[in-house]
Design brief:
Structural class: mainly alpha
Largest sheet: 3 strands, antiparallel
Helix content: over 70%
Number of strands: 3
Distance between the termini: 54 Å
Strand order of the largest sheet: 1-3-2
CATH class of one domain: Mainly Alpha
Length: 127
């Protein structure tokens, strides 16, 4: 592997970790999770419609939307003066892969522990 290839690989890994961190940070807030649920029901929503059920100020909803945009979980487009927000399902891809890898490792660990405990019980019964 060349130095340039190694550097690109490391940059990709760091960027993926930054993306995963941004996604989990965005999902940590219940208001942002509810915004994503609303967007999953509607193809696209204006900002004022997203803010309505929360009874929070326009600057507050804008901050939440900026966090979701930074995490690449939503896209924003403008039609005149109206800002329309749309969910980006592919924004969860890297976080989903990370969770699946963790789950696979945990399953493997628990399977290995189960085998070890079964072996120990078998040895004790023989003694």
């Amino acid at each position: 592997m060349t130095v340039a290839t190694a550097a690109r690989t490391i940059n990709r890994l760091v960027n993926n970790q930054n993306q995963i961190t941004a996604v989990f940070g965005a999902l940590a807030d219940p208001t942002r999770r509810r915004i994503l649920v609303q967007l999953s029901k509607n193809r696209e929503s204006p900002v004022h419609a997203l803010a309505e059920p929360f009874h929070i100020s326009p600057p507050a909803i804008s901050r939440h939307l900026r966090v979701l945009e930074k995490a690449r979980l939503v896209d924003r487009r403008r039609e005149g003066r109206v800002h329309l927000i749309r969910a980006r399902p592919d924004g969860l891809t890297e976080a989903r892969k990370w969770l699946n890898n963790c789950a696979a490792a945990w399953d493997f660990s628990f399977d290995a522990l189960d085998r070890l405990l079964t072996e120990e019980r078998g040895k004790r019964k023989k003694s």
